[in-house]
Amino acid sequence: MIHQYRSNGYNIVMDVCSGAVHVVDDVTYDLIEEYAKVYEAINPDDEKKQRDLTEGEVDGIVSKLSSKYSTDDLKESLEEIEELISDGMLFAPDEYRNIIFEFKKRKTIVKALCLNISHDCNLACKYCFASEGEYNGERGLMSLEVGKAALDFLVANSGSRRNLEVDFFGGEPLMNWDVIKQVVQYGRELEKTHDKQFRFTLTTNGVLLNDEVMEFANKEFVNVVMSIDGRKEVNDHMRPFRGGQGSYDMILPKFEKFAESRNQDKYYVRGTFTHNNLDFSEDVLHLADLGFKQISVEPVVGGPEDQYSIKEEDLPKLLEQYDILAKEMVKRHKEGRGFNFFHFMIDLNQGPCVVKRLAGCGVGTEYLAVTPWGDLYPCHQFVGNEDFAIGNVFDGVTNLELRDEFKLCNVYARDKCKNCFARFYCSGGCSANSYKFHDTITDVYEVGCELERKRVECAIMIKAAMAEEKEN
Amino acid sequence: MKRIKTLTGKTFKETTSVGE
């Protein structure tokens, strides 16, 4: 399967099933487009190759373009195309289905836990999937006993794996700061006795952030996420205190100090855009203009009943915004004031292997969320939905049927991914979003898919621009 | 190659969260 598009002056050709990405001239772009029409009519299924094109079919393709380009140009271009085909970098088949299902049959180990250390929050963000931190349940803080049991569970279920991730999440984690510190200390003790290495991370709204927290975090946390939506009016509309006043003025100076104290690395300022700020590139650039270098601003996932949710009619505007942002990022990079945008980060040289790309995020198997009372859920998005209770940290994973359902989550389990060019980059999307919109974990959230496809295109365009700059 | 510049390294065939 070929996906080709023009962006910011670049002709980009993605060979979907080999992962090869090419920047080509106009002749080659048009020739590949014509070639693909014929090839994909004969071989409509990436997984079932019928045959290569005959000499006559190729001649027919070339003659279609003979009034537009010279014979020499077409001949030279065709030679390069055929070389890439023989090298497996154009029109490559999809031959990974069996590998993925075999891979997913392996014994599962747990690699990461999301510790919902606090089911309480000091903000009342309107879009919060955790409903002011309570996950549609009761307020509560995790005890040290549960925190320790969670780490014990992780160590016991991680096999020979050395690196283990633990994310302090909520609610607002800093409302349970003393327990966080004690859990980290316990983790450091476990490292010595079990040959493990814990990578602790923290997500915070910043309200309780202070010098002591920053100092501890800079010593112990490999990554921190600071929640802020961008421009003051945008942030304060969606992220107010329970009394209604905005949070921007209180949190911004702390976040600026925190980011600087981490040398502008190993953190993200993380915002959410909604139907209310469809010009979200302005929020990204606002954060960049404030000096932040690691930025993520992501689409809200709301239901049709939510005023703020992204509607299908919002898509053209949002897709345009990603293009605007990508071009601005290239410009700023060339001016020496670049920044990273989480959803445009892509590694074309040494990215993940194809197995990881197709196997999914690890929800319900390698990754689990823990409530303050020690209950286990497939991920933080499922917390509070009793249909997805999968066990607890004292008894382990007890709902094996549910775990096995998640084991089968991969790109090939989703019919709608079959003809999508982005499937090797998104791993089939988010199971929680699928469930939210379709009551099944193996469907897709179509609005999210549209945005993801555009982000992949933008990320690759940025790489093309960087490669050109390096060459020059 | 004069007309095609490839940006990627290893092909998929040669090879928690996705895009050492």
Overall description:
- Chain A is an alpha/beta fold.
- Chain A is built from 16 helices and 16 strands.
- Chain A has helices at residues 26-42, 55-64, 71-86, 97-105, 144-156, 177-194, 211-220, 232-238, 248-261, 281-289, 315-334, 354-359, 400-407, 423-426, 431-438, 446-471, and strands at residues 2-7, 10-15, 21-24, 112-116, 118-119, 140-141, 163-169, 197-204, 221-227, 267-273, 294-299, 340-341, 367-370, 375-377, 391-392, 396-397.
- In chain A, the strands form three sheets. Chain A has an eleven-stranded mixed β-sheet with strand order 12-11-10-9-8-7-4-13-14-15-16. In chain A, strands 1-2-3 form a three-stranded antiparallel β-sheet, with helices on both faces.
- In chain A, α1 (26-42) packs across α2.
- Chain A starts with a strand and ends with a helix.
- Chain B is mainly beta and 20 residues long.
- In chain B, 0% of the residues lie in helices and 15% in strands.
- Chain B has no helices and one strand.
- Chain B has one strand at residues 4-6.
- The radius of gyration of chain B is 13 Å and the shape is elongated.
- The A-B interface holds A 17-25, 27-28, 76-77, 80-81, 83-84, 88-89, 92, 95-96, 111-112, 165, 345-357, 361-362, 366-367, 424-427, 456, 459-460, 463-464, 467 and B 1-13, 15-20.
